[in-house]
Amino acid sequence: MLRCPSQRLLDRIVRRYAEVPDAGSVYMDHFTDRDKLRLLYMLSINTHPIILQIFPGAEGWPFPKYLGSCGRLIVTASTRPLKEFYGSSSDVTVDLALQLLTIIDFMMNNGLNYFFYFTHVDADTFGVFSNGQLFIQDASMLGVIDKQEGRDLMNRQQKYKDIFSCLAVDCEPELPSCSSIKESQNLIMICEKFLPKLLKQKFQLPLQEKINSALSICADSFLSDQEIITATQLLVNILKPLQICDSRFVYRYPDCKYSTKL
C-alpha cells in the first residue's frame, strides 16, 4: 500500500485512522507513541483494515463495511466467495462479470484520482453479499498510486528501502518502479483468473466465440494498455444486453425496472 506513497495518501491515512470527530491532524499531534506504533505495525503486517477505514464502502468504494480489527483478525459481514458462483446460470454469471468489470474500472478511474492495483489475486479476493452485490473481500494485496500528484514523484522515492517488508527477516528489497505498473494490470488478472470461469460454456455459438476472443485479448500481458482496455470495453458491450432485471438481484432491484439503461 505504501510502495508508491504521496503526501495526500499519507494525510488521508492519518486522518481516517484516528477515528475522531475533528478528523484529527496530519501532524499526528493527537497520536500517542503507542498509537503511532500501532499504525506502523498494522501497515507492516496487514493493510486490509486500513484500506477499509480510509476508503469506506459508505462512500462508494467496493469494500465491506469496517467493523473492527485486531492484528490479523478482521470482523466483517457474512458473505460468499466468488468461486461458489462459477457454476451458476448465465444470468447470474453475466451480472457478476459486469460487476467485476465495473469495480476494476472504478479502481482505475475515480473522483479522488487514486489508482488501485492488485499485486496478486486468488479465490478469496472477491466476495458476494447476500443481496448479490460483488465487492473486494481481501484488500491486503492492493497497492495505491496517487494519480493527482503524479508518478514522477513516486519514482523519486525508489531510493528509499521499504523497511516494513523486512520486519521479520533481514533483507534488502529491490522494489520495481511505480511507473512499471501497467494501467491494465488489474484487467489482465481478472481476465485470466475469474472471467473465463464465470463465462465459460455459458452461451451458444457464435456469442461464446466472441466472448472467448475478447477474454483472450484482455488476458494477454504482452499487448498494450489500450488494446486490453478496448477488449474489455467490447466484452462489456457484449454482456450488457444479456443482463436481466430480476428480483433475485436485490442490490439493484426494483431500481432496474425504472431505468432506461436496462
TrEMBL record:
Keyword Kinase: yes
Primary location class: secreted
Annotated FAM69 protein-kinase domain residues: 40-220
Superkingdom of origin: Eukaryota
GO terms for cellular component: extracellular region
GO MF annotation list: kinase activity
Protein keywords: Kinase, Secreted, Signal, Transferase
Positions in coiled-coil regions: none
Pfam family, one: PIP49_C
Cellular location(s): Secreted
InterPro entries associated with the record: DIPK2A/B, FAM69_kinase_dom
Keyword Kinase assigned: yes
Similarity field: Belongs to the DIPK family.
Xref: PANTHER family: DIVERGENT PROTEIN KINASE DOMAIN 2B, GH11358P
Protein name: Divergent protein kinase domain 2B
Protein species of origin: Pantherophis guttatus (Corn snake)
